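note to self: dont lose this again. the chain is below, predicted strucutre after it. 149 aa total, dont forget to put it in the shared folder this time
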Amino acid sequence: MKILFVCHGNICRSPIAESLFNYLAAKNNIPAEAESAATSREETGNDIYPGAKNILRAHGIPFEKRAARQMDKSDYNKFDYIIGMEKFNVRNILRILGSDPESKVRLLSDFTDSPGRDIADPWYTDDFETAYRDILKGVTGLLESVENA
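---
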C-alpha cells in the first residue's frame, strides 16, 4: 500500500504525516509506505520546516533531509491513497488531478472519530504539538484501515 500525504507547502504537516506513517508502519510490520508532496510550488526544494523537525525529534520520530515537491497528475497512478490535511488541500489536489475515479483522495481526519475536520497548519499557528497530535490520530486510523484491508 502506498500513501501520498499532501499539504500546501510540503514542509510541515505532510512530512510529519509521512515520517509518522513510515515509522509506525515499520514498527508494526504493516506493509505500507508513504511519501509527501505539496499542492503549491512555494516551498519546492526546501527541507522540512524547523518547527516540524523539532516536534518529530521531541516524539522520537526519525526523518530524513528532503526537498519539498509539488504533486502532479502522474501521482494518481503511483499511490493507493492521496491524503490531504484540510479541505483546501483536497480541493487543490482534485484541481491538479482533474478527477478521482477510484476515490483515492481523502482527508486525513476521515480516518478519525472527527471526519471532515481540517488539521490546522502549524506554519501559521505555530502550534506544532496540536498538529502532531491531530496527524497522529489520522495516521493511526489510516494504518488500522490499511492493516484490516
